[in-house]
Specification:
alpha/beta; TIM Barrel; globular; eight-stranded parallel β-barrel; binds 2-phosphoglycolic acid
């Protein structure tokens, strides 16, 4: 598959923001700003908190809005005694397409490990959805020159044992932890070289076809000012956006700013 077939995916990760009522208002306003041409050029996914998924799904369906629904996390079992958890089957029933797995905030605050990330990736794929697998280094690891080995190791663990056809559909989000919510994005050179290393590792482990097909997002202080440049990089195929996805007008501005 050539790079031309990797349609850019811009994903809004709302984290713990917006009630279901805020979410409905957001989607209506956001959708109104985008044209058919914007949707043709860029795929967009919205990742509200679990409590707003059903409301967002209803608005997207009723108004036939071509925006993908996404979740922020998932449990790896289909069902069971796991108080407070949500399964991939439950998400799939809500027409969720993308599920963020292994976000650094979950690794940092909620004990997410490479092992749980790997189980979640399999569960998401088995339920017919697409994981957005987050990898990224902290400041200390970056200063020690360990970025590539760390993120490649995280990705290898996440995708171990996954069939090449499934790997080809996966989305990877390279999110340096020091860039998240800090206003200090990675330089395009750094984003490109890490994305290239990730793609190469997928090609080595899962075949060239998967390496070419897998989409790699950059995440960490993405704004309308740096998104265009990031998406122009040969190995960056989208963005995972936190802060700049919370306001409908601002997030729409990121997408409409990509018009030629
Ligand atoms: P940010 O967050 O855009 O606010 O830096 C990105 C993320 O954590 O996904």
């Amino acid at each position: 598959m050539s790079t031309l077939t990797r349609k850019p995916l811009v994903s809004g990760n709302w984290k713990m923001h917006h009630t279901h009522l805020d979410a409905i208002a957001f989607v209506q306003k956001f959708a109104f700003s985008l044209t058919v041409e914007d949707h043709r050029r860029t795929e967009v996914s919205l990742h509200p908190p679990f409590t707003a998924l059903r409301s967002v799904q209803t608005v997207l369906d009723a108004d036939r809005i071509p925006v993908a629904l996404g979740a922020q996390d998932v449990h790896w079992e289909d069902k069971g005694a796991y108080t407070g958890e949500i399964s991939a089957l439950m998400l799939a029933k809500l027409n969720v397409t993308y599920v963020i797995v292994g976000h650094s905030e979950r690794r940092q605050h909620f004990g997410e490990t490479d092992e749980t990330v790997s189980k979640k990736v399999r569960a998401v794929l088995a339920a017919g959805m697409i994981p957005i697998v987050c990898v990224g280094e902290g400041e200390a690891e970056r200063d020690a020159g360990a970025t590539e080995s760390l993120v490649v190791g995280q990705l290898r663990a996440a995708l171990a044992g996954v069939a090449p056809e499934a790997v080809a559909k996966v989305v990877v989000a390279y999110e340096p932890i020091w860039a998240i919510g800090t206003g200090k994005a990675a330089t395009p050179d750094d984003a490109q070289s890490v994305a290239a290393a990730l793609r190469e590792s997928v090609a080595v482990d899962h075949g060239t076809g998967s390496g070419n097909s897998i989409r790699i997002q950059y995440g960490g202080s993405v704004t309308a000012d740096n998104l265009g440049e990031m998406l122009g990089l040969p190995d960056v195929d989208g963005a995972l956006v936190g802060g700049a996805s919370l306001d409908a007008e601002v997030f729409a501005g990121l997408v409409t700013g990509l018009r030629g």
